Write a sequence for this structure.
């Protein structure tokens, strides 16, 4: 027998190639499983190619490590065939390991086929030597080598299947598994080699025309390692890309979820918004079913919110809204929907068995919101007006229910706020009425339906008259004399107040100019300015024009601005007030005590007069709470050098008390009601005239 020998360096190298090929194979199975369908197919084919090449070159390097005392070569055709067998087996192996599941039956069958494939590759490779006489194989060792191949294939398939999911742990498991598999493949090879015996005098038939040891070794090694490396690197990069894509799509999904939340919720209070409300309402109507299960739609609108916003700014207003939303939430059941549908407007959908249930919920909300709020160190008070519409009685669709709840809410406001009202069919005629009134209001100025009444202001306690306040009246052809409390809010909401107000300024200036020329040279005229009018750019020019037109000194005119209007945007107010003062006009702070003035701001305002709100005056009794407030206001005014006027003086007791407390002037029904110009002229003859 010829004695063979092995080049130990190449043997070691063949082992390394086997390990690398195994690792690549394991990695590829993971790739195939997680990649998309089309990509998976590519990974399967490319992977089979790389892995086949790896297994085959391990075998071939092993062959190159083998030396006989004769010259060896390999037949080209058989060598290529052995490579093809290796690739085909790899394809089979990868396909099996990347299936969704691996039942025992498949594992056994796969191990058999793969093991036989590897053995076939090995013995085909051996046949490529074309030994003459032929190689003598020791049967037991051949069987052992095939058994090792099958066992190794089974283990490889099982490990590959188990380790295909990616995780950092799996990576190190894979390295271990690759070592074991490499060892198995190598031992199969060398067992096969040990089974081969070469009779003495054998010659290698392929030595002359085939591929040669010395020329083949290096290229095969280089190409194999290059291919395996490229495949491995591609696989790792692809995995990274895939993971990044997965992370990206996860964050996209998250963003999508957030977006749909934002679209359906109010940003500030996190309550559902109108869109979601209408959807839920629709759903509630649909799922009420033929039994027409009852539910209530409540329209909530805060009272006095505007003045908080005007006085403290939007940031505080926002915080108040958040707290209000929390209180509403705390007072309704989880299954009820509460949405924010506008600035200070909320809508609640609550399932109820009978109207009384709705009434209980609404009352709870009214008293919850009536409690003082503590916002950023300020004690704030608002209340809520609630309109309730019931399904199915008060509306069969979303629109009708919302509209009727809204109508009922307006009714709640008009009957005194801070309460809940059920919708009633008659309220709708009220709305129509309201619309008709608005229509008339638009034309009232042109139709000369406005008149001014004048209420005198007296030096406390009983005269003389220092000036008059112009109070607007609307002489409606069918409704009679309408009070400003009825139509000024409408004019404010629609912006009509600007042109109506201009008429008031003009008419009041004309009147006072006439009176000053005819016997009352020092009489002053006070004109009320509403919030919208105050912030309108036309105000200053309108005042200037009127003064010029009637050749009136600025001091003849006092503009009454309510406390909350003045405090709305203090810096803007200051600028307007300065410009008015430049015209010589005086400023009076009306309804003082009802807003939230800060003393600091009050000091900065160029006002010359404070009018104590008649709410305090009407409740006035000596040593009562209101007397204390009035005393404080008067003390405050005096330190700020402001004249103090008390309005709404109706009784002698009030007059005396206010005088004692230090009021400069008094105004009220006791001393003189608002009256037409002619009547005032008549009064002038009866009463002592101003200074
Ligand atoms: P205001 O400026 O506080 O005017 C005083 C209101 O109190 C007037 O009501 C007056 O008639 C009423 N009053 C006067 N003395 C007494 C009294 O002793 N007892 C009672 N209970 N009430 C008294 P009026 O004329 O109905 O005006 C209501 C509000 O409408 C005014 O409050 C003012 O804010 C606004 N207003 C009136 N005229 C105009 C106007 O030309 N332009 C603007 N923007 N608002 C106006
Ligand atoms: Mg006034
Ligand atoms: Mg007032």
């Amino acid at each position: 027998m010829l004695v063979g020998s092995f080049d130990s360096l190449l043997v070691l190298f063949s082992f390394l190639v086997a390990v690398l090929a195994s690792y690549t194979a394991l990695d590829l199975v993971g790739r195939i499983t997680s990649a998309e369908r089309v990509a998976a197919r590519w990974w399967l084919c490319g992977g089979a190619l790389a892995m086949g090449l790896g297994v085959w070159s391990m075998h071939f390097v092993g062959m190159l490590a083998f030396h006989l005392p004769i010259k060896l070569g390999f037949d080209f055709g058989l060598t290529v065939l052995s490579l093809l067998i290796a690739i085909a087996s790899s394809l089979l192996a990868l396909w099996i390991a990347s299936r969704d599941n691996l039942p025992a039956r498949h594992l056994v069958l796969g191990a058999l086929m793969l093991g036989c494939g590897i053995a076939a590759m090995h013995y085909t490779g051996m046949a490529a030597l074309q030994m003459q006489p032929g190689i003598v194989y020791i049967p037991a060792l051949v069987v052992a080598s095939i058994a090792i191949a099958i066992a190794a294939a089974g283990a490889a398939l099982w490990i590959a299947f188990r380790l295909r999911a990616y995780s950092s742990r799996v990576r190190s498991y894979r390295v271990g598994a690759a070592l074991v598999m490499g060892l198995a493949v190598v031992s199969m090879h060398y067992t096969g080699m040990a089974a081969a015996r070469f009779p003495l005098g054998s010659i290698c038939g392929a030595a002359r025309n085939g591929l040669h040891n010395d020329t083949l070794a290096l290229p095969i090694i280089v190409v194999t390692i290059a291919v395996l490396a490229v495949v491995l690197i591609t696989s790792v990069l692809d995995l990274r890309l895939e993971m990044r894509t997965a992370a990206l799509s996860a964050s996209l999904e998250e963003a999508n979820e957030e977006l749909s939340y934002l679209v359906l919720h109010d940003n500030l209070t996190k309550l559902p918004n109108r869109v979601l409300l209408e959807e839920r309402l629709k759903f509630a109507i649909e799922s009420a079913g033929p039994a027409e299960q009852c539910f209530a739609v409540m329209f909530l609108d805060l009272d006095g919110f505007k003045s908080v916003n005007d006085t403290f700014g939007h940031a505080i207003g926002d915080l108040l809204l958040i707290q209000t939303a929390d209180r509403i939430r705390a007072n309704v059941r989880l299954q009820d929907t509460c949405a924010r549908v506008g600035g200070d407007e909320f809508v609640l959908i609550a399932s109820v068995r009978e109207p009384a249930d709705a009434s209980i919920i609404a009352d709870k909300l009214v008293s919850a919101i009536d409690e003082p709020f503590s916002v950023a160190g300020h004690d704030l008070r608002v209340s809520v007006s609630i309109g309730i519409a019931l399904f199915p009685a008060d509306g069969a669709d979303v629109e009708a229910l919302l509209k009727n709840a809204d109508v009922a809410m307006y009714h709640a406001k008009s009957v005194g706020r801070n309460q809940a009202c059920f919708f009633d069919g008659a309220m709708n005629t009220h709305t129509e009425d309201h619309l008709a009134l608005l229509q008339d209001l638009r034309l009232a100025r042109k139709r000369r339906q406005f008149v001014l009444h004048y209420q005198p202001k007296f030096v406390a306690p009983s005269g003389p008259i220092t000036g008059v306040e112009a109070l607007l009246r609307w002489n409606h052809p069918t409704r009679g004399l309408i009070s400003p409390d009825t139509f000024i809010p409408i004019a404010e909401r629609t912006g009509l107040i600007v042109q109506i107000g201009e008429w008031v300024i003009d008419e009041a200036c004309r009147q006072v100019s006439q009176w000053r020329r005819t016997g009352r040279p020092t009489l002053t005229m006070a004109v009320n300015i509403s919030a919208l009018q105050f912030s309108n750019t036309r105000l200053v020019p309108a005042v200037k024009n009127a003064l010029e037109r009637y050749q009136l000194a600025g001091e003849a005119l006092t503009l009454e601005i309510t406390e909350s209007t003045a405090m709305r945007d203090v810096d803007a107010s200051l600028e307007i007030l300065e410009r008015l003062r430049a015209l010589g006009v005086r400023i009076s702070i009306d309804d003082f005590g009802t807003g939230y003035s800060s003393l600091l701001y009050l000091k900065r305002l160029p006002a010359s007069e404070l009018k104590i709100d008649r709410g305090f005056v009407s409740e006035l009794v000596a040593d009562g709470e209101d007397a204390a407030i009035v005393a404080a206001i008067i003390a405050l005014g005096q330190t700020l050098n402001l004249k103090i006027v008390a309005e709404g003086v109706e009784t002698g007791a009030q007059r005396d008390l206010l005088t004692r407390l230090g009021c400069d002037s008094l105004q009220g029904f006791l001393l003189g009601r608002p009256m037409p110009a002619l009547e005032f002229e008549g009064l002038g003859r009866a009463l002592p005239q101003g200074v």
